[in-house]
Amino acid sequence: MLGLLLSAGLPFSTAYAQAPEGPANPPTATIAPVGTSLSGQVVSANEAAAGPSLAGALVTVYYLATGTRRTTTTNETGRFAVTGLVAGGPYIVQVQQSGFRAQNITNVYLKADETTSLAVVLNPETVAVGTRRDDRTALESAVPVDVVDVATLVRSVPQTDLTQLLQYTVPAFNSTRQTGAGGSDHVDPSNLRGLGSDQMLVLVNGKRRHTTALVNLLSDRGLGSVGTDLNTLPSLGVERVEVLRDGAAAQYGSDAIAGVMNISLKSDNHAGSVLLNTGITSAGDGLSTLLGVNKGFRLGQKGFLNLTADADYRDRTIRGYNRNPLVTPVFVANNPAAEQAALAAAGKTYNDFVQRNGDARVRNVRGLLNARVVATDWLAFYGFGGYNFRRGQAATPWVLKARQPNEVVAELFPNGYQPEVNTRINDGSATLGVAFGRSGPNHWTLDLSNTTGYNRMQYDLANTVNASLAATSPTVFDNAGGFQFLQNVTNATVNRFFDKVLAGTNVAFGGEFRADRYEIMRGDERAEAEYDNNSRAKQGAQGFSGFGEASAVVGSRTNVGAFLDVEADITKRWVVSGALRFENYSSFGSAFIYKAATRVQATKFLALRAAFNTGFRAPSLQQVLYRQVTQRPGVSGVTYDGIFNNQDPLRVAVGIPELFAEKSINYSAGLVLTPASSFSLTADVYQIEINDRITLSGLLNKESFDFNPKLKQDFATARVDAARFFTNDLDTRTRGLDLVASYRHALSRGQLAVTTAANFTSTRILRQNIPANFRSLQEDDNPTTNYIDPRQLSLIETGSPASKILLGLNYTRGKLGVGLRNTLFGKVSYYDVPPSDPKLYDFGGYLLVFKPRVVTDLLVSFQATTALGLTLGAQNLLNVKPNTIDEAASNGVAPGGFKSRAAFEQYFQNRFGVASPFPANRDVYAYAPVQMGFNGAFVYLKAVYNLGL
User: Fold this and answer.
1) What DSSP character marks residue 182?
2) Contacting residues for 284 by C-beta, under 8 A, at least 6 apart
3) HEC profile for 184-242?
4) Same structural domain for residues 198 and 234?
5) Closest CA relative to residue 139, chosen from 654, 560, 742
6) Considering 6, 146, 502, 526, which has the largest number of Cβ atoms within 10 A of its Cβ?
């Protein structure tokens, strides 16, 4: 239903059907057509679900010679009539009905002063997630499923990346581009229902998609998690996306705690399109251009080969830079007069030290293939896969004399430098499968498949130095190391629908074998090591010290799973389903989980549904093995923090428990309201309890272990000042409400579509699972040495929008279409980065509060010719930005328990004689990527040329 949000223009990518001859006895329209006319009746192919005739179906008649269109709706018997048409053709007749696949009838020719009759049979818009039956629609499902018509949306809406397209289409889904977040600048983290990035399972054509090799370590979203990079797939090659908003680990395996996303690739066998999209922000930066091609080919009588390729470029952006000498000076700290004198002596101004603080520069080349060959009525072969190469270029904070004098090498960068952290990402996947058995009831089918996925991210650095090498240091490091992840999944599923058991029963069972391999690759030693050329400097290249010998690691694991899934229609009005699953991992043990769901058609227009399930999420191999030393610039110089894996001796010495699986319990209940064929409403409430949730611990400083000289020596041996570990340290509960409504109507010879949807969610921490030897750290007054730091806790509880509400209006008439979309992002709050100066430990950081924001998109589409469609639009038309970090501090809570920001700032000034540095870097990083991006208005032009007409 959400796919109807902005269907401006004819979606030529949908499957074409030849015009039928018409019924043997053509129905008589209620309004007798006169002159050159078109009439007919629309019926359902699934009489048991919807009745034989479809009232309220939208019928749009396109005259290709002029590009004009006429629209009407079917009456209570499914009949329609369009009069006053031009004789000849060709015409295309498009028929749409909520819950059914749209049908396009091509090559329709009309005779002068006669009525041409059509009989149109619509097939239900079935879903592939939440059920293993092949005839369930989203509204018939016992669990909530959003269906996003990507093939239509990508032709007109501002977004082209899948993550951003879903961000403005599915309320329960959230994704924002990160800045100053290391590798997360180049891979957009996303989540569902405010949970972790790794608690949403992603499928492609029903098969498990591999995750990235990247662990999100510096991002505001998905901190400490490993997600799936949706942007490795070209959106032009995607037909639709189904988002199952319910726990489904028993059906699909680990990671499906928050829900499941299934990406269905295009399967058209002859049509295609060329897409050109270009745009720029109202500030004149962030130029974005994409060129993509999709084309289908016939393989045999019933098979297809669908190919997609695209290339895109997105330039960097800068927002809100206004360097403040009291916050982040260049030459002299805490002395504005001396700072100005130093600037003048160097012949510089603050404009020479602009911080690149927005979107990274990114270039993508992507390819995608989807194919099926039907050998016989009972044997078919299929395959799909793709490849993505991405080049990302991002900047880290400036290295300046005022804060890091020992890392400024006068011979190379006398006035400081802004390191660049760049990535090369290679991502590929391939699935081969064979399907045995005849379609239809009372026939066993067997699906065998093997899927291999690979993700590799390698870093290179520019405009930086390893200061311990002094003037002999390179300023460019072509290889700073990286990581790669390989996953292979072999799957077998047996399925049969018994139409004589009860009112219809589907039984499915199968097994899966998965093998994962993860490796951290060592880079150029000069980027990571410490040398004696400059004894005052710390080790490694500034901005990102890469991966050295101590970080290099490789590991693997396997798991075997088996499931049973039964779905029974007890009566034609009552459905009950259940699933059982057992999985065993080579690394940490086994899990047994289950799911039960039901749906009751209480009245003709009201259905009730509910589900209960248990779930689990195994710690990702990346979380188990990741190890790296990172830099953290502070007011007293650079400090080094280490992330140490489960295999490291330091973990054992400190007393951190080994990782084990998260466990969950999900409850959901909802209703489906369809009082008219043109209107539907779904409402679902949910509760998700997660025990032993995996997070990244707080910074455990070596000073915290003064009582244990051996531990302090262990830190020194590891060459770090503080350490982090992945731990099972939280029990959480998430509650929420999802609402989705859609309405379509023929209006004044045009078509009106209205869609509104909302998500309201709240997460609370029920218990902190802190080992006894760390409880004193959690309870002391130093928030920077907590076992679980306040920032991490706040990101889990309030780091995702408390609500998101969408309202879309679209009207098409003739060659024109106009769309208006409004998105309300709710409040977000989290703690600022804690201070790195020991004398400030007792303050902590501000609780930053970002108030709700509304983003408005406007687009106008024009069908210029039969094949060419144009869209001119503006994303974020009113140039709305989130609160700045400075504003969020004023909205929030001051450090140290002060009642107001003014009181805290005055106290700090009196105590230290200088202005407060909180919140950190607020002048050079004016914005944070919270509810949405902060680039502001974006104007774009999109052209689509349809092939195969």
Assistant:
1) G
2) none
3) HHCCCCEEECCCCHHHEEEEECCEECCCCCCCCCCCCCCCCCCCCCHHHCCHHHEEEEE
4) yes
5) 742
6) 6
Q: Which amino acid is at 819?
A: G
Per residue in 643-689, pLDDT tens?
899 888 888 888 889 999 999 999 999 999 999 878 999 999 999 99
Task: Give the residue-averaged pLDDT of 261-268.
Answer: 96
Model pLDDT, residue 536: 80
913 neighbors 258 (Cβ within 8 angstroms): no
**Do 648 and 765 reside in the same domain of the chain?**
yes
Distance (Å) of CA 348 to CA 70, 344, 414, 451, 577: 64, 6, 12, 56, 70
DSSP for 30-64 reads: SS---SSEEEEEEEES-HHHH-SB-TT-EEEEEET
Do 89 and 212 lie in one domain? The reply is no
Cross-strand pairs, 386: 368, 429
* This prediction's pTM: 0.91
> Which CATH number is 78's domain given?
2.60.40.10
Tokens 């024009």 identify what position? 862
User: Is residue 147 very low, low, confident or very high in pLDDT (cuts 50, 70, 90)?
Assistant: very high
With a CB cutoff of 8 Å and minimum separation 6, the contacts of 126 are: 134, 135, 136, 137
Contact 358, 319 (CB under 8 A): yes
Mean pLDDT in residue range 351-370? 96
Q: Quote the pLDDT of residue 14.
A: 29
Q: Counting every residue, how long is the chain?
A: 949
Instruction: Map residue 174 onto helix, strand or coil.
Output: strand
Question: Cβ(216)–Cβ(179) under 8 Å?
Answer: no
Residue 486's nearest CA partner among 511, 448, 451 is 451
- State the distance between the two ends of the chain, measured CA to CA, in whole angstroms: 27
The CA-atom distances, in angstroms, between 542 and each of 53, 516, 726 are: 69, 33, 25
* DSSP H or E segment with residue 709: helix 709-717
Q: Which domain holds residue 888?
A: 126-321+357-947
- Is 8 within the bounds of a domain? no
Assigned token pair, 201: 């399972």
Report cis status (omega within 30 of 0) of the bond before 20: no
CB atoms within 10 A of CB 903: 12
Question: For residue 129, which of 318, 259, 314, 299 has the smallest C-alpha distance?
Answer: 259
Domain count, the chain: 2
Residue 34: per-residue pLDDT: 57
- Mean of all residue pLDDT scores within the chain: 89
Are 48 and 497 in contact, with CB atoms under 8 Å apart? no
Position 830 pLDDT exceeds 80: yes
DSSP 8-class letter at 773: G
Distance CA 728, CA 745 (A): 51
Structure tokens at 134: 């092949």
* Tokens representing residue 53 in the block: 């005739």
Please name which of 788, 692, 823, 704 lies closest in space to residue 223, comparing C-alpha atoms: 788
